[in-house]
Specification:
This is Putative DNA mismatch repair protein family. Helix content is about 30%, strand content about 25%. The structure holds adenosine-5'-diphosphate and magnesium ion (MG).
Length: about 350
């Protein structure tokens, strides 16, 4: 028997493609938790609770009290490129929601088993339905439900290579998830967050809405951190076109940590901006007597057309117009705040 030679080109089936590419959006349980929390925030929730089993590989459950999902939308909810947030490409320029690609739930449902329970306002009961590979497994079943949505993801990565589904590092995964929830909690102070292990009696983080940001930082990162924070603020003093505002907290000269904590939100989106992080780290290294790493929380607000959130499927890194100008201004502000805190400290040491 002679196999076809040369090998014939054929189209991969949709489900094979999806399994291969789903990993771009969801690399670890952490990325799934981030997507689910962002969906809850997009649904205007004020209460978001996360439950994790086995680092998220066995179970990720996110409960919210948001606006819920329409009954008639449930059939397509986990299909790829289905979203309630974006209609026209042009809207990308002024995206206010975290989501817009309509990819997260679809990807997650190709990597694990998804069960949604949801109720919308004015209805006496909710619906529960499960999904596999983007499709409903059965008709939605009426059920009792409290306000909002619960999304349950079971056995994430069950069909993936060993490296993904291994539970060896499930403790590390859980730690990262708690850290992620902490970051959201510190920024969204009008939302209560909690995160606990499945069957644990106490949550590992629990914040209450309407506490001050400093109170939340204290409850999450401890008194030591909170005590050594300085409030920071900056606004662009240049004329147009670059308009930006930032506020946040940075640690003072007496704070000493081995690792830098950098929590950055741009237009309410939790992102990484390594150039800014490095710039701030360098300022601290130069200005501090001791080799200690800072704690920094920064929230930046930019005109939506100055930032591109669509450069990465995971929406983790963003691309920003006038990067250098913004970095330069934040750097010089950090520098001067650190100098005055340094002087205050050496003054205290003298007396
Ligand atoms: P995206 O967030 O990019 O729209 P997703 O795949 O994350 O795509 O979600 C698909 C759709 O499902 C959302 O547009 C939203 O309408 C709905 N949805 C998902 N999670 C929730 C939730 N927790 N509450 C209300 N609606 C939700
Ligand atoms: Mg989403």
């Amino acid at each position: 028997n002679s196999p076809e030679y040369p090998p014939k080109i054929h189209r991969l089936s949709h489900s094979v493609v999806k399994r291969i590419t789903a990993g771009d959006v969801i690399q670890r349980p952490l990325s799934a938790v981030k997507e689910l929390i962002e969906n809850s925030l997009d649904a205007h929730s004020t209460n978001i609770n996360v439950i994790i089993k086995n680092g998220g590989l066995k179970l990720i459950q996110v409960n919210d009290n948001g606006h819920g999902i329409r009954y008639e939308d449930l059939p397509i909810m986990c299909e790829r490129h289905t979203t309630s947030k974006l209609l026209m490409f042009e809207e990308l320029m002024r995206m206010k929601t975290m989501g817009f690609r309509g990819e997260a739930l679809s990807s997650i449902s190709h990597l694990g088993h998804v069960t949604v329970t949801t109720i919308t306002q004015g209805h006496v009961h909710g619906y529960r339905v499960s999904y596999k590979d983007g499709a409903m497994e059965h008709e939605p079943k009426p059920c009792a439900a409290v306000k909002g949505t619960q999304i349950m993801v079971e056995n994430l990565f069950y069909n993936m290579v060993a490296s993904k589904k291994t539970s060896q590092n499930s403790h590390g995964d859980y730690t990262k998830i708690v850290d992620l929830v902490s970051r959201f909690a510190i920024h969204h102070i009008n939302v209560s967050f909690s995160c606990r292990k499945h069957k644990a009696t106490r949550p590992d983080i629990h914040t209450t809405a309407a506490s001050s940001r400093l109170d939340i930082i204290r409850s999450v990162y401890g008194v030591e951190v909170a005590r050594s924070l300085m409030k920071i603020e900056a606004a662009d003093n240049n004329p147009a076109p670059s308009v930006f505002e930032m506020h946040g907290f940075m640690s003072n000269a007496s704070y000493a940590a081995k690792k830098m904590t950098m929590i950055l939100f741009i237009n309410d989106r939790l992102v990484e901006w390594s150039a800014l992080k490095r710039a701030i780290e360098v300022v601290y290294t130069k200005k501090m007597h001791k080799a200690s790493k800072p704690f920094v929380y920064i929230s930046i607000v930019l005109p939506p057309d100055q930032i591109d959130v669509n450069i990465h499927a995971s929406k983790k890194e963003v691309s920003i117009l006038n990067q250098e100008v913004i970095i330069e201004q934040i750097k010089s502000m950090v520098k001067s705040r650190l100098r005055s805190s340094n002087e205050a400290q050496s003054f205290e040491e003298q007396i």
